[in-house]
């Protein structure tokens, strides 16, 4: 029901999808992402906003790192 949030998410959906397609092809990146997502689910189940925020930040930063490694590898080809 939050139109502003929905609009913001929609603007970045294609960026997130590009990062997924580039990075989740790597087995270790995929396994690490799955582990972090389970951890995030646990925070939601515990209804811990602080843990959910912290774990979301870890996931975003890990995704950024994976994407940067992917870009460096592509540039080195």
Q: Would you give an account of this structure?
A:
- The chain contains three helices and no strands.
- It is an all-alpha fold.
- Helix 1 (3-23) crosses helix 3 (49-76) and helix 2 (27-45) packs antiparallel against helix 3.
- The longest helix is centred in the C-terminal third of the chain and has 28 residues, at 49-76.
- It is flat and about 45 Å long.
- The termini are far apart.
- The mean pLDDT is 93.
Topology, element by element:
Layout: H1 3-23, H2 27-45, H3 49-76
Helix pairs in contact: 1-3, 2-3
Q: Distance between the terminal alpha carbons, to the nearest Å?
A: 45 Å
Structural class category: mainly alpha
Helix content: over 70%
Average residue-wise pLDDT: 93
Number of strands: 0
> What is the subunit organization of this protein?
single chain
**Unreliable stretches:** none
Note the beta-strand portion. Answer: under 5%
**Tally of separate helices:** 3
Rounded to the nearest angstrom, the radius of gyration is 14 Å
Largest sheet: none
Broad shape: flat
């Amino acid at each position: 029901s939050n139109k502003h949030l929905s609009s913001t998410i929609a603007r970045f959906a294609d960026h997130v999808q590009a990062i997924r397609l580039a990075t989740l092809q790597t087995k270790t990146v995929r396994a690490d992402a799955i582990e972090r997502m389970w951890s995030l689910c646990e925070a939601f189940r515990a209804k811990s906003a602080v843990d959910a925020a912290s774990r979301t930040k870890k996931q975003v930063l890990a995704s950024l790192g994976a994407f940067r490694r992917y870009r460096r590898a592509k540039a080195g080809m």
